[in-house]
Design a protein that fits this description.
Elements: H1 2-21, E1 26-29, E2 35-38, E3 42-46, E4 51-58, E5 63-70, H2 75-78, E6 85-89, E7 94-105, E8 110-117, H3 122-125, E9 130-136, E10 143-147, H4 154-169
Antiparallel strand pairs: 1-2, 2-4, 3-4, 4-5, 5-8, 6-7, 6-9, 7-8, 9-10
């Protein structure tokens, strides 16, 4: 009986920490002094030849979707990525997000492209899973389509964490 109680307590602690970790917001200051809040990127798509990580980033005024594609073009070519991102959600609609910035981080070992989420689309992104992303990766190929296989609800979870924290402050 003691072992069963111990196992139940262990599982409860494990599940609790996982739920708390899902809303673990990190932050960093950009070169212009802007404070950005973000989550660790979640794997959305992985094959032997390419992968895509995604996360929500905010400056507390706007929400951005940050993509980390692999492989990614060189810095010279990557700075030419200026096209919008098209994401299909499980509500069978497609959403266009404006290109905001392309960054190379961690000694240029990671490329991150930020896309601005329009205020009118925040509700849809907080309710419906991501299904497909269409990205124009200049310098590597034309348009890459990523049919999401993993963590389709990562955008929902991360966005709702930010929205919940904002509601608590009001």
């Amino acid at each position: 009986m003691k072992k069963l109680n111990l196992i139940v307590i262990f599982l409860f602690v494990l599940i609790s920490t996982k739920l708390i970790a899902q809303c673990e917001v990190k932050n960093r200051v950009l070169g212009d002094g802007t404070m950005m809040y973000y989550f660790e990127p979640a794997d959305f798509y992985i094959t032997k030849s390419k992968s895509l990580k995604i996360n929500i980033v905010t400056d507390k005024e706007h929400f951005f979707i940050a993509l980390q594609p692999f492989p990614f073009p060189s810095k010279k070519e990557g700075k030419n990525i200026k096209d919008d991102l098209i994401i299909h959600l499980s509500d069978n609609k497609e959403y266009k997000l404006s290109h905001y910035d392309t960054q190379y981080r961690h000694n240029d070992s990671i490329m991150q492209v930020l896309y601005l989420m329009e205020d009118k689309d925040v509700e849809a992104f907080s309710k419906f899973e991501a299904v497909v992303a269409e990205i124009n990766m200049k310098g590597t190929e034309f348009v890459r389509d990523y049919n999401f296989k993993l963590h389709k609800d990562a955008i929902i979870q991360q966005l709702n964490c930010f929205l919940k924290k904002e509601e608590e402050k009001q």
